[in-house]
Amino acid sequence: EEAVAQAMVTPSEQVLEQLIKDCVGTKVHPNHFHLFKARHTLLQLYGRTSEVFSSEVWKKKEKMCQEFLDLCYLLDPGLARLGPYAGVALYEYEDAVMIRVQKLASKEYYDQKVVDQGIAIAKSLLQKCIKTLQDEPEDQPEGKLKIIAQKKLTEIGLLTSKDQKS
Question: With helix as H, strand as E and coil as C, how does the chain read?
């Protein structure tokens, strides 16, 4: 608990990754709540603190989001208690997917079907995020995130409908 609290004072990708690595299996169970909190913070840091959002970073972010969400659904299938955590993870997961899609689409030769599948996944993640955070008060961080996710979903819808008309 003390190690996590100390790491959270000024969290960084490197500090949290090392904390998780040092604690998993030696000090606590991999799914211990304190590591759960550390992972929740880490998945939000990926791509935000790095100068370049490299493919290695977004792959780590996507994987961590998947694993984090799997754990949320395992511990709380209806997300009655872990909804805010899952909502943030869904939003961050969508962010990583869209970065990947943008990188794919920026290549000279790309597979439109793969790009379309990525966009469909991103839309689905945003819809799940909005649904998960639907009861969060709009003056709270999770409620504000729900509003941002709704706007982002609208923007993606507008972009895809514009592409289909072209």
Answer: CHHHHHHHHCCCHHHHHHHHHHHECCCECCCCHHHHHHHHHHHHHCCCCCCCCCHHHHHHHHHHHHHHHHHHHHHCCCCCCCHHHHHHHHHHHHHHHHHHHHHHHCCCCCCHHHHHHHHHHHHHHHHHHHHHCCCCCCCCHHHHHHHHHHHHHHHHHHHHHHHHHC
